[in-house]
Structures
1.
Amino acid sequence: MTDAPAFEGWALVEIMGHRRRAGFVREVTVAGAKMLQVDVPAPDGDVTEFYGGASIFALRPVTEQLARDLAKQAEPRPVRALSYACEDDIDG
């Protein structure tokens, strides 16, 4: 019985069914444990994230262009500041 080669390439990864990351993925070993390294394209250079196998819900191979487009859509957007009123006088 031979081990199949680990997948390495552009993919959309769903983590725990709640978070999606698109980028270049490869299997790596971190502290003796196999993990998935996801290099997410960003304007200032790739952002690298690591995920354990048990947390991966799905992995879909995609083209490089699609992964880059998906990564752009997931970029953090500017946050609108909220102002909170201080309620010093609760009794009116």
Note: Residues 39 and 48 are 4 Å apart (CA to CA).
2.
Amino acid sequence: MKFNLLLCTGLLLCLSLFAEKNQAGDKLLIDYKLLYTYTQDSLERFYKANNIPQFITPVENGIDMYEITYRGEWIDGSLIKAKGVLYVPTTTEPKAELAYCHGTRISVKQKYGINDLEQLVAIMHAADGYISYFPFYYGLGGGDKEHIYQHAETEANAVIYMIKACREELFDKINIKTNGQLFVTGYSQGGHAAMATHQMLETDKFPEIEITASSPMSGAYDMTGTQSVTMFQEYDRPHYLPYLLISYSYAYKHLWEGDIYSVFKPPFDKDLKKYFAQPRKIDYGALDSILPNYPADMIIDSLVNVFKTDTSFLFTKKLAENNLHDWKPEAPIQLCACYGDNEVLYQNTEVAYENLKENGAEVYKRMFGKHLAHNPCAPFTIIYSKSFFDNIRNDRKRIAKVRFPKRFFLNLGIMSANRKGKKKMKETGEVENDALSVRKKK
């Protein structure tokens, strides 16, 4: 009798522990840590020291910065560990949410706070009352797996599952309330990720999350068309090509025979294997310095020929699956880019705008900066994006209008940066971006 009682008690205890383990396994939020608090006074001093004008982007509150560890869906449907940073305004009123998608990164180790220039965008929005998400893509910042570069599904999942984890399991714990508005933006690869996130949020997969508007900036939305020509021309960022090939080889099987590094000519086969070995600690500048100016020159001739001539090539098909230029957003969308972009061709934005407009979307376009290259373009597109979101948040009718005096000083800044860009182009002997080419030396 005593033995049976002990046996039943043991079984009940095991079942209880199993249930608890399963329940914990189903949760998306793994851990959260308050890393730092930026007071309103410290932010105002930082803005002043770095000449950030508050009439462009005000400081209305302090910010709590959290490190978030969560689970997100991988390409096989399993849940994997991912990382991100959350910036929360230190106020009790319900706030709008903003997700910022970062640009290209190779190193798995990531910085936090003002030590990361792109996180300043999230900080800037949080200082003006937005709850700001800054997810690292899968495989970066201490997350599981390897990062798949320019891969729409995993980019979007990294963003969306961070939002879900925070909304469903964190905000009640830290007394945060949202007002129901969600905005998504990002620059460069982040533009591609922002577009992917908007698209996925308007499928049936996440009915509980409604997107208010997005503003993708300088993204490579036309992977198989506009952006693919950079393979065969002199190009400032040749590392994009091997990063893409290695990533897609990791994500998709049987793209080509043999090891992924066998598609690169010597000495790039050995060099790239060394640079892309895990854990990756390099930045793209070091990688660009060892690669040819014409990206296709590092690829074996037979593979280049297949890409040029065979439309059934599996790699080309998978690349096409990650195009984001031809669909119909239901929420408003603004596209931003510079004509002088030397890395992500502005035609990506033109093609996407025309297709989205033809499909019936409420789409706006901000194109400017004839002589503004990729990096100098970014601050202005960020201001345009925040203005777009602010107008919607504040229920203004003309959501794409930049209000005075912000418009005046923004135009002055673009004119000044454009003159500097033109002068630099003359000094370096570069020619302007034409219909389907990047800037290149004479």
Note: Residues 2-26 form the longest helix (25 residues).
3.
Amino acid sequence: MKTPIYQCLWFDNLANEAATFYCSIFKNSKIVTETPVATSFELNGIQILGLNGGPMFQITSSISYTVNCDPTAETNRMWDALIEDMHTMMEIDKIKTE
């Protein structure tokens, strides 16, 4: 990894699948390395480590990412891809900006 501090997301043995999914949605993204334990990937230059940590910790809303994009169609494209067949904790139309 290029930076000394980066995000690590814990998955229940699905780190590569998650990295592949996220890289398919965000432009300028790629998988950097893959091992049985972890997958390193970049989303538009942001480095993330996906760890195959097991089921001890579940995904929560305690982490979030903000993606600045324009136009609205691009925002909707990414949102629709991210929530397909998933449960959302917050609908996109509930987000308020000032």
Note: The helical segments are 15-25, 72-83.
